[in-house]
Amino acid sequence: MILTIAMVAFLLVTIFFVIDVSKDQEVKSDASSYIYPFSAKTIVKHNFMTKPETVWKAITNLSEYNFWFPGILRLLPAIQDSSRYVQKYSFDKFHFAPGSEILVRPISILPTLKGKILSIDNNKSLKMEMQMSPLHKEMVFFDLENTPDGTAVTCQRSSSGLFSWLSVIGFESKKSKILSNLASLLPIEIIESTKNKSKNDVASQQSAGTVSVAGVPNFADKKDMVAYIVNKVLDGDTSLLSSLNDKVISGKSKAYLIKINKGSMDRPAMPDAGSATAAPGVAPASASGEPTFASKDDHIAFLVNKVLDGDTAIMDATPDKIIKAKAKSMIMKINKGSMDRPAMPDAGSATAAPGVAPASAKENDEDLMKRLVADGIAGKMDEINSLDNKILRAKIKSAIIKSKKSK
Questions:
Q1: Do 54 and 164 lie in a common domain?
Q2: Do residues 13 and 103 share a domain?
Q3: What is the pLDDT of residue 359?
Q4: Highest averaged pLDDT of the listed ranges 57-71, 217-231, 285-299
């Protein structure tokens, strides 16, 4: 008779379960259930964007199970040896360890039922036994796994016996949301894997224009860098292409090489080293074939004379846009006849290359002051304004003012 009743109940539960599953559900967790004649099991998996320590603290906080564990109205400790009634149900006196008993008060008219903590593995797993009704018990397992994105948690609930089918009632509508309920109560902690962090570092370097590759100069123009890499690979240095971090430059270089090998494109010219920018912390080199002048006027006069003599490439290689613009303006005026061609500055007006002491450093302060005062009276103030010695600079300017007033 009892077996017949159990079989009829099992069939009814199966029918209601199929109806429940067919409804539209909003479940963020990966949930599945299994029902057999004398056993049942449900498994819920959820990925938390939270550290394992935070998730573990919430799972082991039994006093707050009623906020996220479906079907539980209250979870209480069972302390038998307490002399005071209040302390019998206080978690302050509860010893959280395997073998400790708990009391389960379900959301129903049923009385308080018993449970027990079976095993504990800190930040990894918690296993408990809960009696959810007088007819069946459930084994509740929580397994935690540390992942690059946070914590992967698996909740497995299993029961056995004639009334084990009671475990799957309301699974799709309520019980399957056990971990998503918990996730809504926990803070979202951004956990970035080492791989993602390294990608972000490369991306930030690329956006700043500071990505450097061994054996490749830092060109101001990416086209020059692509041309440099293509020429190097065609000359036999194939390892250079595989060491690139910049995917855009790497992709363009490979596309160029494919077209060149097919014959649909000519090999690009090797870019001039003068177009390459200096690496971080290294002083930039001067333009190819162009000395560095102490005075901007001398620099402009040098460029104008070079261009008028037919060397137009030196104008394009000049990095200073202001000097380039002034030189072009002067060339236009000369071509129109509204201005005479300036004299080519002496080589002595050019400063020494980086690392070599400038010619002005060999002068004593008195000779330097006389020369710069004369330049200042003539209207050449660039070298005076670039002096690092503030006292000397002030004296020179004062002497220039006095000299102009005395005239």
A1: yes
A2: yes
A3: 41
A4: 57-71
DSSP summary character for residue 386: T
> What pLDDT, on the 0 to 100 scale, is given for residue 286?
45
Position 341 in a domain: yes
Give me the mean pLDDT over the 147-175 stretch: 87
Strands 150-160 and 350-351: unpaired
Q: Is the pTM of this model over 0.90?
A: no
Return the structure tokens found at 56: 């573990």
Q: Do 273 and 298 share a domain, yes or no?
A: no
- Asked whether residue 302 falls in the same domain as residue 264, the answer is no
Cα separation, 67 vs 65, in Å, equals 5
Amino acid (1-letter code) at residue 222 = K
- Which H or E element spans position 47? strand 39-48
Task: Encode pLDDT of 206-264 as tens digits.
Answer: 444 444 454 566 676 778 888 888 888 887 777 677 667 677 787 788 888 888 887 77
Tally the residues of the chain. Answer: 407
Residue 216 pairs in a beta bridge with: 213
**Together in a domain, 26 and 113:** yes
Return phi, psi of residue 103, to 5°: -120, 130
Angle at 175 between CA 169 and CA 181, to 5 degrees: 165
Q: What range does the domain containing 6 cover?
A: 2-185
Cα–Cα distance between 75 and 14 in angstroms, integer? 30
What is the per-residue burial (b if ≥16 Cβ within 10 Å, else e) of 230-246? bbbbeeeeeebbeebeb
Question: What's the structural domain count of the chain?
Answer: 3
Structure tokens at 281: 């912390």
CA pair distance 296, 363, nearest whole angstrom: 21
